[in-house]
Structure formats: structure tokens, C-alpha cells
Amino acid sequence: MTESKLILDGARVAQAIKDELAGRVHKLSERGVTPCLATILVGDDPASETYVRMKGNACRRLGIASRKVELGAETTTEELLAVIRGLNEDPTVHGILLQHPVPNHIDERAAFEAIDLAKDVDGVTTLGFAQNAFGFAAYPSCTPAAIVAILDHYRIPIEGKHAVVVGRSPILGKPVSLMLLNRNATVTICHSKTRDLDRVVGTGDLVVAAVGKPKFIQGGWIKEGAVVLDAGYNPGNVGDVDYEACLARASAITPVPAGVGPVTIATLLKHTVEAAERRV
Ligand code: NAP
């Protein structure tokens, strides 16, 4: 590792976001409003339980209320929809987060669509996604927004850069691609059928890894001086890029853990506070 490598510190970016939010939460409390995030966990996936717990703890530390709804693995789509509708109608709930993934027998898309757009703080509804594509979403998906926030925090230019995004999921690869496009990057979106992936990744000034496979992006694929953003979070705290090898070529890189993850949570808090502010 040389001196010129920039480690993009997600904890620091997250803290800057939370510092800015603290005053806003205080102002809301003076008006008798406590921002409230409802999290819905269906089933007993240990990783999902951890994510939901982390989000609840982060809320508490900032004075945001969190309402945890835990449903059994046997919950039907109809039952889940009824829970979401109840939260939609509850004026004390400002944001709703349905933890992905839900058990296979549930229609996850129908459940996401049931979330009121005004409470869709994780940008999972079709309308929220479409608004993000047009560049005016109130709440873009949190992980894509976190990636852009990291670039902005470190004043890394996006405009005119070639961004290569590996992954095209509706919550991550696609929305981050559109956000970078809206910021005037030239964007290439890769997926499991992309040919010569190593060569394509090698053309990226910005490389976003959103694959869900540990250490998938190889150091040798990275263009010298590229900026690498690793959204991956695999068991054992391992990202989607081979960190040490990519660090050797990159000018800047997010580590895992303490990269994109904490900024994603801070973004969720920010969206929840904004949703509460819109209601007063
Ligand atoms: P996903 O829905 O499984 O999507 C994975 C994407 O990777 C798909 O588009 C898939 O292509 C593509 N892919 C799979 N194998 C590939 C290959 N061999 N070559 C090129 N592309 C390939 O995953 P996700 O929900 O987007 O999550 C991706 C990663 O981000 C995971 O590690 C997840 O844990 C992490 N994540 C982190 C946060 C955070 O807060 N840090 C939040 C959400 C997700 P096809 O479309 O062709 O199948």
C-alpha cells in the first residue's frame, strides 16, 4: 500500500450524516414529533435479524423511534400486506422498511408495492424507483444513495467518468446506475450474462461491485487509479471485491466492513427524519 491510496471511510461519512441529523431530530422533538421507522422482519434468517437489529440500534442512538414487527416464517402474502397497510395508516410511523429477502412463498414485489410512497424510505416501490430514475425521488434506495454520498463526501468527481456497475438488482445495481447516470457519468451495467467482464471492469474509472459473491472482483481487472466501491456484504464480513488486490490498483476504495454499510444505515435514518419533517 502506498501513501496515495485513499480508504473511503464509511464510518466517517455516516457520522457526518448523523451529526447533521441530530439537530433536525431535536427540532422535531420540540414540536412533539419523534421520527419513527417501522422495520418488518419475516422469518428467522440470522443475517436479516442482525441487519434489523443494527438499524434499530442506530435509530435509538439518534433519538429516532423504531418499531420492530417480527412475523413468523409461515406468514402469508395477505397477512404481510395487512401489516403493511396498518403501518401505512398509522400517523406515528414515518418510514417502513421490509427487510429483504422474505421467505420464498411470499410475493415480495406485492409487499414492496403495498408500502405507501410517502413512507417508502428505502426506495423499493416501483414509483419510488421510477422517480429515482428521473432524478427526483424523495427517497432513493439507501445503498445506492450511500455510494453517491461517499463519492460526494470525498469530493470524487462523477461527471464525465465511466462508471462500471457489476450487478443489476432493483434495490442496488439498477438504481445506483441511474443515480450515476443522472450525475453525468457514462454508465455500463454488467450482469451474469456479460461477456469479458474483466475487460469491461477494466474500463471503469468508477467500479461499483453489487454482485453478492465474496471477493468476486479481481485486482487484475481494475484500471490503475480507478475508484472502487464495494456494496457487497457476505458472511464473514467479506465484500464483493478482493480488497487487498484491488487496493493495489485503485486510487480509492471502500473497505468491508466500515465502507458502504454504515452509510446505508445513516441514509435510512436521514430518509426517516425527512419523512417526519414532511409530515409536520
Ligand atoms: P442480487 O439481487 O443477488 O443481485 C446480484 C447481481 O449480480 C445480479 O444482477 C446478477 O446478475 C449479478 N451477478 C451474479 N453473478 C454474476 C457474475 N458471475 N458476473 C456478473 N454479474 C453477476 O444481489 P443484491 O441484493 O443486489 O446485493 C448485492 C450485494 O450487495 C450482496 O453482497 C449484498 O449483501 C450487498 N448489499 C449490501 C447492502 C449494504 O447496505 N451494504 C445492501 C444491499 C445489498 P443477473 O441479474 O444476471 O442475475
Q: Please mark out the parts with pLDDT under 50 across 5 or more consecutive residues, or reply none.
A: none
Please identify the top-level CATH class of the largest domain.
Answer: Alpha Beta
Tell me the total number of β-strands: 9
**Shape call:** globular
Oligomer: single chain
Account of the 3D structure:
With 280 residues, the chain is α/β, with parallel strands linked by helices. It folds into 2 domains: 31-116, Rossmann fold, CATH 3.40.50; 141-260, NAD(P)-binding Rossmann-like Domain (Rossmann fold, 3-Layer(aba) Sandwich), CATH 3.40.50. 43% of the residues lie in helices and 14% in strands. The chain is built from 10 helices and 9 strands. The protein has helices spanning 10-30, 46-61, 77-89, 108-114, 126-134, 142-153, 173-182, 197-201, 243-249, 260-279, and strands at residues 6-7, 36-42, 65-71, 95-98, 162-166, 186-190, 206-209, 227-230, 252-253. The strands form 2 sheets. The chain has a 6-stranded parallel β-sheet, with helices on both faces. The protein is globular. The termini are far apart.
Task: Summarize the entry for a quick read.
The chain is built from 10 helices and 9 strands.
Pick out its properties.
single chain; 280 residues; alpha/beta; Rossmann fold; 2 domains; six-stranded parallel β-sheet; 10 helices; 43% helix; binds NADP nicotinamide-adenine-dinucleotide phosphate
Task: List strands and helices in order, with pairings.
Layout: E1 6-7, H1 10-30, E2 36-42, H2 46-61, E3 65-71, H3 77-89, E4 95-98, H4 108-114, H5 126-134, H6 142-153, E5 162-166, H7 173-182, E6 186-190, H8 197-201, E7 206-209, E8 227-230, H9 243-249, E9 252-253, H10 260-279
Parallel strand pairs: 1-9, 2-3, 2-4, 5-6, 5-7, 7-8, 8-9
Helix pairs in contact: 1-10, 2-10, 3-4, 5-7, 6-7, 6-10
The chain binds NADP nicotinamide-adenine-dinucleotide phosphate.
The site of NADP nicotinamide-adenine-dinucleotide phosphate has 26 residues, from α10.
